[in-house]
Write a structure and sequence with these properties.
alpha/beta, Aspartate Aminotransferase, domain 1, Aspartate Aminotransferase, domain 2, 2 domains, 7-stranded mixed sheet, globular, binds pyridoxal-5'-phosphate
Amino acid sequence: MTFTRKNADLTPIEDTVFSVVNLAKKDRAENGAEHVIDATIGSLCDEQEQLTAYRNVFAHYDAIDDKTKAAYAASFSGNPDYREAVWNWVTQNTDLHLAHSVIATPGGSGADSTALRVFLDVNQTVILPNIAWGSYNLMASENNIETAFYTMFDGDHLNMSSIKETVLKVMEKQDRIVLVVNDPCHNPTGYSMTIAEWKELIAFLNECSKRMPVILIDDIAYIDYSYDLNHVRDYMNEFNHISDNVMIITAFSCSKTLTSYGLRCGAAVIQAQKEESVREAEIVFEKAARATWSNIPNAAMANFVWVTSKNRDAFMQEKQTYIDLMKERSDLFILQAKACGLPFYPYKEGFFVTLKIEDKDRRDRVHEAFLKNHIYAVKVKNGIRVAICSLPVRKIDGLALTMKTIMDSVQ
Ligand SMILES: Cc1ncc(COP(=O)(O)O)c(C=O)c1O
């Protein structure tokens, strides 16, 4: 007998991150922190391996009065000033002129999972990258949605043919397309698409949209850690060229942008050519919000508005010091990885570099060998993720060669 619904998946969540995090913690306690390479943590950490919490975010948050923290938000779709601030933030430095609406969500997770749920019927298929943040799969299965995967890379660039083939195949069996891209600063590889790739993708989706509605979910969770902030949003101008039958949902997260992972604040930015299409989506998103999390923490939204307006310059400066630090870390790792021939997926920017090990059994053996050598990283599909965001420069120096030597010793 079981109390859960008939089709509940009773296999426990296999959290590949937290199990390795615990092993690293134990190792640190037994052997001392300097002996342990902990490249598991997907949050920004400083050179002392402590979680970063921006003063330019939290000093003000702490000072917000109790009643603002206690109050419900103004609406299920979010506070009006927050919704406007998110639109301005997400589309800064662009010339986007699509009809749009913003729905406040609990982090990017809320935007991603709700988008799957409101656009797809049960048993329809969402199209995901084969190397991706693991939660997309769970979001799909929890909503009884099937998955199809495109191959992310062809050599050192996006495998556009695989995206096209996968979309066309799914079009054979259903009446709409929902495609997820996690760009820029893809988790876990650090890839960012070129403008040419974006142009080709939008042109292709426009073609597909002659036959059925197409929804593109662009997960921008790491966008604010690009190494070229002035141009990182340039690709969004391509969105202006979508046809009437294409909708874009940009999934925004304050978690990384503000180092406020636990405050659960983000947004789904709905964009289309026609106001009525946006309004329809807005209605279903708002109902989904009401029926699940109800409303988003009022003070988290208020703080985002303040940080990105009144405190913008100071916040940007503080964040930039960490972007510079991550660039120093990733430059060193990539330089040394190339020098010793350690295989990795095309990295451009962002929190993670992923070692390329396509054979699953070999990947598992390498991962096991890393653990024995006090190196803790996270297994992902076709590779092992190294969290540049949390590893200090001194521990990165020489790491690539150590990893390569261990890999070579594994059959
Ligand atoms: C690719 C990607 N999207 C979205 C998220 C959402 O994070 P949150 O729900 O904390 O905003 C994450 C977090 O790890 C992520 O890696």
